[in-house]
Amino acid sequence: MNKNSIAIALVAAVASAQDQGQDPDFMQWVAKNNKxxxxxxxxxxxxANFNASYFKVQELRARHxxxxxxxxxxxxxxxxxxxxxxxxxESVLGxxxxxxxxxx
Length: 104
Prior knowledge:
Shape: globular
Oligomer: single chain
Distance between the termini: 59 Å
Strand content: under 5%
Number of helices: 5
Order of helices and strands: HHHHH
């Protein structure tokens, strides 16, 4: 598939997503990152996670205009998935957070 075919397919997918009430930013991100989903519920969860990331990036851009913030291939992960991917154990993090809160 050449670049023109990919661009046309992306435009068609975004237009279709808008007709079906899906977020076109999410659908563009899905296409760009070659994402696939197990089922409709998984897609809804990923879209909600993406939207949270999207709005966080927008907020950070507004607060820090001289710094660049972007979405990436991990923007559909929730906090637990992100920490697990990075090898962080939530139970250890939770204990450290409690210790930090109690030390002040």
